[in-house]
Amino acid sequence: MTLYLDYTSPSIQYFDDVNRNRLFTKDQQNYINVLSTQTLNSLDNVSLLDIFMSQSNVVEPHYHQNAAELVYCASGSANVSFINPFTNQVSTYRVTPGQVANVPQGWWHWEVATEDNTHLIAIFNAPIPEVILASDILRLTPSNIMAHTYCLNEAQWRDTISPIQMSTFIGPPVNCYQGQVQGLANQQPQVYGYQLPYQQAPVPPQSGFGQGSPFAPGTYPQQPQGTFPQQQQGMYPQQQQGMYPQQQQGIFPQHW
């Protein structure tokens, strides 16, 4: 598909500093930067997430309803896992520097850092990658619906998910420790790749963006409830410089 942009316009942008486009911050070792047409309006059908994680941290289970995802490992290592909806099998791929794992559009997936200073670049074939997070599904689905549908004790279900108060993005939450978490980093992948030597990339400094920025911590742009965008082939909005949609907080799906 082709986007027709006015490359003579004075508002067209050809450069951006992804380090300034913070999507989510857990701490100084675990955060996500984003590049999309919202910050670089000359992009065509491509966007990316710049992901930094320390060992045993997890990009939470999620799926992208409008894009496939190519996960490239720049430094460190990670297990990239997904559920194949055609076979109902869980596959896990260990990626090290220079290696990639491909996640088709709409597939449920997650990533676990298997060592410190892991840097992943997630590349999408969409100008703005949309996402539905497990944390949003769990906390926003009414507890009585979950209990009735799956024959659960509603009070126990509410108590179990009560710590999930917002979109998680990278888990586990700060100040949370469970004995089984450390074992995730040592989980053996089902498919092995080549192990290559690498030079670790430095972690960029923290973004100076404060509250009110479209990508500041805690201000994740989201779609209002019940207004899931119907994507048509070749029909993507043209984002103007400095024009960010005003969206409601706390309702999925979200734009990354």
Automatic annotation (TrEMBL):
Cupin type-1 domain residues: 21-158
Top-rank taxon, per record: Bacteria
InterPro entries per record: Cupin_1, RmlC-like_jellyroll, RmlC_Cupin_sf
Extent of Low complexity compositional bias: 217-250
CDD domains: cupin_OxDC-like (cd20306)
Disordered: region residues: 203-256
Pfam families: Cupin_1
The protein's name: Cupin domain-containing protein
Organism per entry: Brevibacillus choshinensis
